[in-house]
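Q: Hi! First time asking for a complex rather than a single chain. Here are the components, and I think there are two in total. Is that enough to go on?
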Amino acid sequence: MSTGEATRRAPNAYMPIPTRIGRMVGDIEDVFTWALEPSEPFEFAPGQFNMLYAHGVGEVPISISGDPTDPTVLHHTVRVVGKVTRALGALNVGDEIGVRGPFGSTWPLGQAIGQDVLFVAGGLGLAPLRPAILAVLARRGEFGQVSIIYGARSPEDILFRRELEAWRGRFDVDLEAIVDRSGTDWYGRVGVVTRLVAEADVDPETSVAMVCGPEIMMRFTARELEQRGFEQDQIWVSLERSMKCAVGLCGHCQLGGTFVCKDGPVYRYDEVAAKMLVRGL
Amino acid sequence: MEDLESILKQHPFLEDLQPEQVKLIVGCAKNLRFKPGEFLAREGQKEACLSLIRRGTVAIETHAPNGETMCIETLMPGDVLGLSWITPATAHFDCRARETVIAFSLDHGCLVGKMKEDPAFGYAITSRLLDNTYQRLSRLRLQKLDVYR
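A: Yes, that's all I need. Here is the structure of the assembled complex.
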């Protein structure tokens, strides 16, 4: 069971609620963000996800990527990778999808109060971290130093680019970005995200790290954080598994003795570090 | 005004070297400045020196036949450039100053001679080179996995 904070539960965990697509933004190739318009205020906590239902095609778990302080709009960022996400991507503004949720555990914002906060995001992993970043920035005075490290495949693959630039422009946020490869028209850093973790101006004694991205990237990042002096219980990760029911019944997302849909997706690293090293899990 | 020795020992690559070992390096070091766009090393050419970057960014690049240039990694102040120096191999990539770069250039023949004469000094330098090489290799392995695709 995750030691994350109290989660918000779906009013009816089995019933998709028809929800209208209010706005759609094409972020990067094969990735889009929706601003959905729930018929009633939709409250969630950073780190949680919804099951999005494409009528007649199927359901997929997608992290909520929007502002947790605004229950009138529900943001989801989706990468087109399979049948259901392709069907979702073919929808237009004004169309309806089914939304079931919110589900899952949350980023430990309560525990981070008074601490320095380090966010490390890789690729689309920025989407599940965005609500936590927005929540921290909305209550900026409650936290110590706020640092954001972001790694992407290339400059063209940088998610929420304008927002990252705006955060970088703040006096009360340290933000560093790096891309795995680039041409000559990119003047930022080139290399892997762990490089920035190694260099980050953070004090492990007073910090909480929240990490989200591909699982290999999270393992490498956690290892780098441990080398910097972080204990495993100061590191939080968001795992991705094949979540089907979202209520811990079907077992598709089982990871050892835990169900990622119910006990995760956000875990304290010491709870899952050993499991993440088991091949096939 | 700081002398070469006191500036040299501030570079992370030389951190914790004994004072007499830093003195050995002084005799092999030159302080060089590279203009934006200037190359510190070129693919296919023997690297005759080890560069300790003090200021500016260096892009490690290669190019495709269509003229497209790809940057594989950027090196920053505190980094070391010219790791192929430890083998008879030539440089595998172009290393281009993105902005004005200031670096200590350690002459290969001079440094290797002193490393051979003084095994403790040789060990200190070699272990630092190996650590840098391992760090670079680890990063390239992660990069090769292309995890964001």
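A: Chain B has one domain: 4-140. Let me know if you'd like any chain examined more closely.
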